Amino acid sequence: MEAIQAQTRAQGTGNSVKALRRNGWVPGIVYGSDMSNQEIQVQGKELDAALRRQATNKPYRLQVDGQTYDVMVYELQRHPVMGNILHADFKKINMNEKVFTTVPVLMTGDPELGVATLIRHSVEVSCLPGNIPESFTVDVDGLNIGDVVLVSDLSVPPGVELGLEATEVLISILPVKAKSEESIEAQHDAAEVAEAAGSTEQSNRV
Length: 206
Known about the structure:
- By secondary structure, the chain is an alpha+beta fold.
- The protein has helices at about 15-20, 45-55, 180-205; strands at about 1-10, 25-30, 35-45, 60-65, 65-80, 85-90, 100-110, 115-120, 120-125, 135-140, 150, 160, 170-175.
- The chain has two domains: about 1-90, CATH 2.40.240.10; about 100-175, RNA Polymerase Alpha Subunit, Chain A, domain 2 (Beta Complex), CATH 2.170.120.
- The strands form three sheets. The protein has a six-stranded mixed barrel with strand order 1-3-2-6-5-4.
- The longest helix is centred in the C-terminal third of the chain and has 25 residues, at about 180-205.
- This is Large ribosomal subunit protein bL25.
C-alpha cells in the first residue's frame, strides 16, 4: 500500500491557502465515520508521485503527524488549465469492511475489422479495499464488426462483486465511419479554390 505523508493544517483564510499552494503544498482534508474532519496539507510533488505509483481507486496509508490512517482518495480538484492538484479529499476506511468504488476498463489489441469503442469507461465494484482491481483489461484482438464485450466477459478476481448487470455492453466493434457526402463535396470545393488560386498566382508572376 502506497504511503502519503501529510501535516495538520491550521484553518485560515483563502489567502493562507493560496500561500500554501505557492510554497508547493496541496491543502486537503481527511474524514471518516469515526473521526471529525481534519484539515491537512501534503507536498504537491510527493502527492503526484504517490498517485503515479498507484491507481487512485486503491487504498493509501495516510500519515499525519505520526498518526496513520487507511484512506481512499475521495476527490481531487485540479486546475482547469495547468492540471495540478488544488485540493485533495481522503476518506478513512476499515480494511476489513467492503467499499464501493469504480474500476477503469482498458482495451488492448486491434479488431480484425472495425473500430473498438468503449461504451463504459469504468465499472462499479464492491469488495474489501485490499481486493480492488487496478483495472479490467479486455483484449479485442480478432473481433469483428458487430461483436460486443459484455460485463459477463470480464475476468473478475475472487471477492469482487460488480455493480452492473451481466448483459451490460462494455465495448462494441463498430464500422469505420465513411466520409459524409457533405465533407467530400467540401473537399472538392476546396481543391477547386486552391487550383484557381494557383492559376491566378502563376499568371501574376508572368
